[in-house]
Every structure is written in C-alpha cells, then in structure tokens.
Write a structure and sequence with these properties.
By secondary structure, this protein is an alpha/beta fold. The chain has a domain at 1-139 and 717-755: P-loop containing nucleotide triphosphate hydrolases (Rossmann fold). The relative contact order is 0.14. It contains 17 helices and 16 strands.
Length: 755
C-alpha cells in the first residue's frame, strides 16, 4: 500500500485548494517558519480522524477552517482528502484507490467520507486499523513530539509500543469484550432480579393452577360418576316399574275373579237363608269389615304419602341449613326488599321533580343510606345462623298429620279386629245352626282369605310404586342439580354401557354409596371453586413462559460470559506474547541505531512491573469503628516499559542524565527502531532533525534512507542534509494574501533539465 496524494482545501492556512502527490520513497516539505509546513502534517492527522484539537494546535473545530485575510474572505468549511493505492487490496475494499475525506463546518460538525460516500468515524477507524495506521500513531511524529517517548512514564511507553507493534486491534477487541462482558453481567443481574421478582407470584399461580386442575379433574370425575349413577338409577326405575306392572297383572286378575265368586257364594247363602237373622248379621259384619279394611288401606297409603312429603321437607331444611353457612346464600324476605324499593322510589320521585342539584345529591345519599341499612340489617341477621319456627312449621304440620293418621289407623285396626272377631263368632253360630250350608260358607271363607292375601299383595305393590315415584322425583332433582353444577354434558349418559342384569343383581346399598360419594365430591368442588380458572391458567402460562425465557436467557448469558472471559484470557495471552516478542525485535534495532548514532554504547527496553499502592476504602469511615479493621484492596500490578542507555566513554546510565542533543538522538533511534520492526505504510516526520548537528544530520540521513526501504517517508525539515536524501521537494510559501501555496521540485527531472 502506498500514499498517493493529499488534497487540502480551507484547512488552516490553505485557503485555496492544494494537492501534494507522493510518488517517491522520500518526500521533503520545506519552507520558512510560519509558511504552513506543519499544517500539512496536521491535515493528515485531521483526515485520519484525530479528535484532539490540542494536538492540532486548536481549541474548536472552527479553528481548523481558514479565517481569511485582508485580500480574501474566510472559508465556510475545511476539507482534507487523503488517497491510498489499494491495488494489493490491503484495505478490505474492492477499489484500486481508497480516498478518505473529512469536512468540518463552522458549527463544529464533521462529516467523513470513503470514496465519496459518507460514513461514520467508527468506520474510518476500523478501516485504518486493518493496515495499522491511525490519527496519532507512531507514524505521525510532529514537531516537539520526538522526545515524548522518553518523557513518558512506563505505562504510556507501553501504550505507544502496543500501538507501534500493531497490537491496538487486540486492545480494541479486549476492550470490546470487557464492555460486552460487563453488559452481559448487568443483563444477568437484571434477568436474575426479574426471576426473583416473579418467583413468589409464580409459586402463588402454581398453587392456584393446582387447585384449578384439581377442580377440573374433580369435575370430570364427577361427570363420570354422575353419568353412571343417573344411568343406573334410570335403569333401576324402568326395571322396577316394568316388574311392578308384571307382578300386578296376575293378582289383580285373580282378585277380580275371586270377587265374582265371592258375590256368587254370598247370593247362594242369601237365597238359602233369607229369613235367617244370623246370616244377615254375618253379611252386615262382612260389609263393615270390608269398609274398615278399605279405610285401613287408605290410611296406610296416606301415611306413605306423608312420609314422602316429610322426607322432601327434611331435605329442604338441610339445604337451608347448608345455605346459612354461606352468608351470600341467606334468603331475604320479599317484604323487606319491597320496603327498600319503595323508599328509594320515593326519594327518586322527589329528585325527578326537583331542579335543585343539591336536593338531587341529597336524595342519592339517602337512597345509598337505605341500601346500606338494608344490607347491614340482614348482615346482622346472618350472624344468627339458625332456622326459624316458620322453617319447621310445615315439617311439624306434616309430622302432626302423620301422628293423627297413625291414631286413626290404630282405631281402624281395632275396629277391624273387633269386626273380625264378631264375624268369627257369628260364623261359628251359623256353622252350628246350618250344617247344610257349611261347605258353601267354608268355600266363601277361603275365598275371602285368599282375597285378603291378594289385596295385601296389591297393597305392597302400590307401596313399592309410591317408593318408585319418590325415587323418580329425587332423580329429577339430582339431574337438575347436576346440570346446574356441571353443565348439560352430564346429562349425556345414554352411551354409558351398563347391563340390565347388573342392575337387577346389585344390592341397592351400592347405589346409595355412589350417591354419598357424589355428594362428597360436590362439597369438595364447592371448596375448590366450581367455575372459572381460565384467566388463572392463562396468567400462569404467560408467567411460566416468561420465567422459562429468563432461565434460557440466563443460560445463554452465562455461556456468553464464559466465552467472553475465555476470549479475554486468550487476547491477554496473545497480547502479552506478541508484545514481548515485539520488544525483543525493537531492542535489536534500537541497539543498532543507538550504536550508529553514538558510535557505540548500549540501549535496551525493559518490561517492568508498575507497582500500585494498596487502596483503602476511606469513604466508609471504618477506621472510626472500634474493633473494625479497614478493608484493603490491592490492585493488580501492570507492566510498563523502562529505557536503559549507556553512552560510550561516559558513565551515564539513565535518561535523566542525557543532554538535549543526546535525548534527541536516543528518541530518534528508538522511533526508527520501532518503525523498522513493524514498518507503517508511511511516516510523517515533522522537523525531528531540528536539534541535530551536521555530523549527526548525515547519520540521520542514512537512517531515513534505510527506513525508506520499508515505509514511505514524508519529511518536514529545514536540514539540507535531510533535503538531499529526498527525491521530491515540496516548498510551502505564504504570500500577502496569508494563504499557503505549494511548489514542487522532482530532483530527477531537475537533473535532466540541468544537463
């Protein structure tokens, strides 16, 4: 890569455009003091991205712009463009020429360009870092800065050497890695903080979700249990009804036939003993006995009905007692509600006919008081938690009615027993008196006995039928409750596969056990919450997803942290090894240049430890606390560069003992040694030979000729010896218009013209 040209317009003293071509290994820039020679070097610093105005002898960006003169006005902007030959593609750009430009305006704003395209300053630095050059590198040695490396402390010297050895790229990467590591650690702390923040809420949601899932599982289980229970109960009722009808058919038919036979026998007996008083008595007693038995049957059926009503009333009372356990289910008298409504309607009616907003607000406040008093009154009533006499009134009436029926039943049974006894007595008398009608009467008695058995069997079937009716009503109630609690899906039990034989052969207690188990499940479901849970599940899933994301993010960050730490260690090792190797190479060249400049002697660079004092945290004031020792933090030692020189024929072994000329020669030897170890593409030397005498100037000339084999040199000088080593000479002059002008001489062309 070769520096091709430098274009300057409006920069400092260059009020008009000036172009400097660099086609020779050594180009010298000469001119009287104040003509603007050093402005050329500063223009190069400027275009390469220098941000320190002090290093360019200015305070603001506006100081870089030509301020005009008596003959001409000032410029509005300063523009510098530097062009490089990129035919070998040292720059990672697919162009044979790379032109870097920078413009500064009066408001201090800057613009940067690469081949005419505006870019960022960062892009300029990255492009230049690829070829190890920069705005303030070792290849830019301005006037008065040659001695800077000797005056620098060990740490600053190390930084200069790292820059000269091209290790800045590792430093940039390490700094970037450390910045990313710090950011990664901050992100890890933030992610951990977020996880800790949502952890209690996540645990709470997890418990809620467990309750919701338990409730759902319980609902599903209850649906299955209900379906099986309802299916079995329905099959049982259907089977019971069908069997009762089948079992009733034959006894009913037999009873009808038997009644006809009994009537026929009675007619025979009546015809045979029409005038027999005892026969008439027997018939009268039989009629009364039948009436008594019919009354007995009616009372028995009435007791069955009352028992069913008592069972239903007791169930309602149990439900009311369970409702009283929940304050929100306590019933309220309709009259109390209507009273509150009437009071509110009255207030509202008065407010509607009033135009006073204050009166309307008062009406609203009084309506609110009515409602509050109503709620407070019934909330206080809820603390009683007991049923009133009115709740037990119907049950007590039913029990009283049952007791009356039982008394009547006992009375009827006593009458029936008396009539039976009378019937038997009369029958005995008739048997004794009417031997001839004994067979008919015996047959009649047997038929009546058989009729009694048939009637008893039919009564039993009627009782079973009434029990089936009660079970059917209870099944209907349970079906409605199941539909309300679990939804209409519970009614879809037609597909439940249960054989009729299984229902017939199973004890009835098994079905009652299933019903009790369902009741326990319903109570548990009410405790868990019968409805809802979708919002909780959604929130839990979102929170869990966020926690899992943070966990994955932490794992990725930890992995990134490990990679960055490993990269930093690797960069430190590479930086240390290459730095030490570079110091060895510099020492070889430094020793040779030093002996050349001084005719002997020894000069070396040494890597030294920079000790740092232990740091105490004085801000905490722990030294004032009795029994507390102040914590000490020892900073890690750093390495720096020390310079050891020994002049021939002199007992001088330190930089502080060198004279001004000796310091200049030493700094030049070191700078040239550094440049030769890692040759930059070009070097700007701004009057670095100003302090040299004639003999040392020749040595200096030999050195730059040797250095020109590795780097392109642009030398700003007043020294004739240095000028003689250049192939192209640029002269900088300044006329009356206070602008710098450029004149050029190519020595090869001048020799040809002179001949």
């Amino acid at each position: 890569m070769r520096l091709k040209r430098l274009e300057i317009f409006g920069f400092k003293s260059f009020g008009k455009k000036a172009t400097l071509e660099f086609n020779a290994p050594i180009t010298a820039i000469v001119g009287p003091n104040g003509s603007g020679k050093s402005n050329v070097a500063e223009a190069v610093r400027f275009v390469l991205g220098e941000q320190s105005m002090k290093s360019m002898r200015g305070k603001r960006g506006e100081d870089m712009i030509f301020n005009g003169s008596q003959q001409g006005g000032r410029a509005n902007r300063a523009n510098v463009t530097i062009a490089f030959d990129n035919s070998r593609r040292e720059f990672p750009i697919d162009f044979d020429e790379v032109a870097i430009g920078r413009e500064v305006y009066r408001d201090g704003s800057n613009q940067y360009f690469i081949n005419g395209t505006q870019v960022r300053l960062k892009d300029i630095f990255e492009l230049l870092a690829a070829v190890h050059i920069g705005a303030s590198g070792h290849h830019m040695i301005s006037q008065g800065e040659a001695d800077r490396i000797l005056n620098a402390n060990p740490k600053e010297r190390r930084e200069m050497l790292e820059d000269a050895l091209g290790l800045k790229v590792y430093l940039y990467k390490r700094a970037e890695s450390e910045r990313r590591l710090e950011k990664t650690e901050e992100n890890m702390k933030e992610a951990e903080s977020l996880r800790k923040e949502i952890a209690p809420h996540l645990r709470f949601l997890k418990k809620q979700v467990e309750r919701v899932n338990e409730a759902r599982d319980l609902r599903d289980r209850l649906v299955g249990q209900y379906r099986e229970y309802l299916k079995r109960e329905e099959l049982f009722l259907e089977y019971g009804k069908s069997t009762i009808d089948e079992r009733r058919a034959k006894p009913a038919k037999d009873l009808a036939d038997l009644n006809l036979k009994i009537e026929h026998a009675r007619r025979e007996l009546a015809d045979g003993s029409a005038e027999d008083e005892k026969s008439r008595r027997l018939l009268d007693v039989d009629v009364k006995l039948r009436e008594t038995r019919n009354r007995y049957d009616e009372l028995s059926r009435a007791i069955g009905r009352v028992d069913g009503m008592i069972e239903a009333e007791e169930k309602q009372i149990k439900k009311k007692e369970a409702a009283l356990a929940r304050i929100e289910d306590i019933p309220v008298r309709l009259g109390d509600v209507e009273g509150v409504k009437s009071a509110i309607d009255s207030e509202w009616s008065q407010a509607e006919h009033s135009g006073d907003i204050g009166f309307v607000k008062g009406a609203l406040w009084r309506a609110k008081e009515h409602i509050g008093n109503f709620v407070s009154h019934h909330r206080g009533q809820s603390d009683i938690r007991t049923l009133t006499k009115e709740d037990y009134r119907d049950l007590e009436q039913l029990k009283g009615e049952r007791a009356m029926i039982e008394r009547d039943l006992i009375t009827v049974r006593t009458e029936s027993d008396a009539y039976e006894a009378e019937y038997r007595a009369v029958k005995v008398e008739i048997d004794a008196e009417k031997e001839r009608s004994r067979d008919t009467e015996r047959a009649l008695f047997e038929m009546m006995t058989r009729r009694k058995e048939l009637e008893a069997a039919l009564d039993k079937l009627r009782s079973e039928e009434e029990s089936m009716a009660r079970d059917a009503r209870r099944l209907e109630e349970e079906t409605n409750e199941a539909a309300v609690l679990l939804g209409r899906a519970v009614l879809d039990y037609s597909q439940v596969a249960i054989a009729q034989e299984e229902i017939v052969n199973e004890p009835r207690e098994m079905q009652e056990t299933r019903r009790r188990e369902i009741e326990r499940g319903k109570i548990r479901l009410e405790d868990l919450g019968a409805q809802g849970g979708e919002d909780t599940l959604k929130e839990y899933e979102e929170t869990l997803e966020r926690d899992q994301f943070l966990e994955k993010e932490l794992a990725d960050l930890a992995k990134t942290k490990g990679s960055l730490e490993a990269l930093i260690v690797e960069l430190n090792e590479k930086l240390d090894s290459e730095f030490k190797e570079g110091v060895k190479k510099i020492n070889v060249q430094f020793s040779e240049f030093f002996r050349l400049m001084f005719g002997g002697g020894i000069a070396e660079l040494h890597i030294v430890k920079i000790e740092k004092r232990k740091r105490k945290d004085l801000d905490l004031g722990l030294e004032d606390i009795p029994g507390e020792e102040m914590p000490e933090e020892e900073e890690e030692d750093e390495e720096g560069i020390d310079i050891a020189v020994s002049l021939p024929h002199k007992k001088i072994r330190g930089l502080q003992m060198l004279s001004g000329g000796e310091r200049a020669l030493t700094s030049i030897a070191l700078l040239f040694a550094i440049s030769q170890v890692n040759p930059p593409p070009f070097m700007f030397l701004d009057e670095t030979d100003a302090a040299l005498d004639e003999a040392n100037s020749r040595k200096y000339g030999d050195m730059i000729e040797n250095l020109a084999k590795f780097s392109q040199l642009i030398v700003i000088t007043h020294n004739r010896e240095t000028m003689s080593r250049a192939s192209v000479l640029y002269g900088i002059t300044m006329g009356a218009d206070a602008t710098s002008k450029v004149l050029s001489i190519a020595f090869d062309e001048a020799v040809v013209v002179a001949k």
